[in-house]
Amino acid sequence: MSKRATITDVASRAGVSIKTVSRVLNRERNVREAVRARVLAAAKQLGYAPSLSARGLAGARSYVLALLFDHPSFSYLAEVQGGALERCRAAHYHLIVEPVETGALTKRTIEETLASARPDALILTPPVCDSALALDAIEQAGLSHVRIAPGRNLDRGPWVRANDREAARALTERLIDMGHAEIAFIRGHPDHGAAAERHTGYVDALGARGLSVDDGLVAQGDFSFESGVAAAEALLDLVRRPTAIFAGGDDIARGVMVAAERRGLEVPRDLSVAGFDDSPASRRVWPPLTTVRQPIRAMAAAAADLAMALACDPQTKERTRSLPCEIVMRGTTAAPRG
Amino acid sequence: MSKRATITDVASRAGVSIKTVSRVLNRERNVREAVRARVLAAAKQLGYAPSLSARGLAGARSYVLALLFDHPSFSYLAEVQGGALERCRAAHYHLIVEPVETGALTKRTIEETLASARPDALILTPPVCDSALALDAIEQAGLSHVRIAPGRNLDRGPWVRANDREAARALTERLIDMGHAEIAFIRGHPDHGAAAERHTGYVDALGARGLSVDDGLVAQGDFSFESGVAAAEALLDLVRRPTAIFAGGDDIARGVMVAAERRGLEVPRDLSVAGFDDSPASRRVWPPLTTVRQPIRAMAAAAADLAMALACDPQTKERTRSLPCEIVMRGTTAAPRG
DNA sequence: ATGAAAGCGCTAACAC
DNA sequence: GTGTTAGCGCTTTCAT
After folding, report:
1. Residues of chain B predicted below pLDDT 50
2. Which phi and psi angles does A329 have, rounded to 5°?
C-alpha cells in the first residue's frame, strides 16, 4: 500500500517543474527532447500514473466516457462495449457503464446518475438514443453525447450509423441478379429512421437495374413478427405474386417465412426471403435467413472516437459517420423457379 | 451548459457551512434534523450532485469499482456486469469496466490501466482471478479486490463463489433417488478448485445415501469435450457399467453424450448424463442437458457488496461468500431401466 | 452541533 | 522552453 507517486515526485526526480511534467504527459509542444526523455524516464521509474480524479477536477476533461444502455441483448452489449473499450484503451480513457430505464428517464435521473461522474461524453445506444426526453435531459445537463444507430432526430447532435440504405440497395441488387423481377418490400416501423432508409435503398436498386417500382409490392410493417405475417399474406395473395420478399427487419422476415409455410410455399424454392439486422434468431430458423449484419463493434468504436474527439475539441467538424454493413447470404434466397 | 452546482452553492443556499453539507451528504452524525432537512432541500432545488473527481481527490474513497474480465462469453459478461451494477447503483457507486489479457498481465499493466482510475476495489472474474501474477500486481499496486469464483489461492483475499460442493451433492442425490446405484463421476481440471469441490459433493451424496464410493467409477477429465469422450469410453467399457455419469462440467458432459451415442446407448434411456455450469451449449444439445446453474448475477452482486463494504471499512470481517446453485433437471436424466 | 482552514494532485493562465 | 501561482470541489483535522 505504498503511497502512489505524484506529479511532484516525478518533477523533482527529473529536476524540472511540475508544469513541465504536465506538458510531457499531455503531449504539449515546447519541451526539449532531452527534458521530455528525462521526465518520461522518471515517470517510468516511479511507476507514475496521473490521477484521474485530480485531472478531472482541475482540467476541462475527465478522461471518462459513459456508455448508456437499456436492457440490451447480451451480444449487443458485449459488442458495443468491446468496440468502445478498444478505443478508450488506446486513448487512455476509461469507460463507465450505466444502465438506464429509457421510459423512466428524467432530467433528475440523468443528473443523479451522470452529473457526479462528469464523463467527457456519453455514448447512447438504442433505444435510449431515440428518447427525446433523454436528449433534452442530457443537453440540459450540459453533457455532450454521441448516439449509435439513432432512429430519428438525426439533427440533434453527433451519431454513428450503419449505412442501411446502401446495404438494402446491395442486397436488393443481389436478388435482382439472381433473376428476381418481382421483389416485394415490407417496411419497418414508420417512426424509425432506418426503416425509411432501407426502403430507399430498395428503391435505389430497382432504379439502378432498370426495374420499375410497383407500390403495390411495398407493404407497411412495424418490425414485429406479426406485422410480417400479415404483410406477407397480403403480398402472397397478389395476382402477380412476388418471387422474393425483402423484409426491413429479421422479425418481419420470420413472419414472412411462417406465412409462406401456411400457403404451402417452400423457401427458398417458391419464395426467397431476406431480412435485416442479423439477429440471433435469424440463424435459428430453417433455412437460416439471408440478412444484413450491422457493424456494431465498429460503430461503437467510431462512436468512442467521435466522443473523444469532441471532448478535445467541441468544434470538431466530423460529427456523423455511416459505416458499411455486411450482406449475409444464407439459405432463404435462391434464383426463382423456371 | 449551465455551471454545475457545487457544495458551496448548496451551503450558502441552506445557510450553513460546506462542512455541514458534507456531513449531511455522507450521513455523518451530529447534524440537527432541521438543518439536515434544509440542506437536503437546497441540494434538491439546485440539482446538486457531488463531483466524483473532487471526492476522489480529497477523500479516501473514490466511489468507483472496477470490473476486470478477460474475453468472457457474452452472457457471462452481461450477467456479471448486471449484478455488479445493480448494487453499485443502490450505493451511488460507479463501475468502470476494464478488459485485460490475463496472460500479458504485469505490475506495469495494472498500474497503467488502474492506478490512474483509483477504484476503491477491483472485481476479478475468471480467469483473471486465478492468475497469481495478477494478484501479486494488484497487491503491490495497493488495490483491494474481490474475486468471483476463484479456482485457487482461496487464502489470498476476499471472494464470492457458488457452493459447488453442495450443488454436486444435491444433484447426485437426485440421481440416487431416481434409482441409480452405479453413478460415475468425471472430474474437471485438477488445478481448478471447483473441480475438486464438485467431486467432494458427489462423494458426500454417496455417503449420505449409504452407497459405497468406488474409485473405479471416478475418472479424471480437464473440462474439455475431448476429455469427456475419453473418460466416458473408459467408464462405459467397465463390466459393471454405470447407469449414470455425472460430469464435472458441461463440455465434459457433451463428450459423454457423444461417447454414449458411439456405443449405441440412448440417453437417458440407457445412460443418464449430468453436467455442471449450464453453459449455453447445454441447451443446444439433444436431449437438453441436466446440469447445475451458477448464480452468476447474484455472485457479482455479492462481490460488489463486499467490495464496497471493504472500501468503507478494510477491517470488514465477512470476506467470503458461498451462494447456492440451482439444479436444472432437463432431458438427459431418467430412472435406470429395469 | 457546527465552522474555518488546509490540502488532495492536477491543469490553466500567465510570467519569465 | 520552462517555472510560478492559483484554483477545481471536495474531505479532513482541528477549533469552537
Report:
1. 1
2. -80, 120
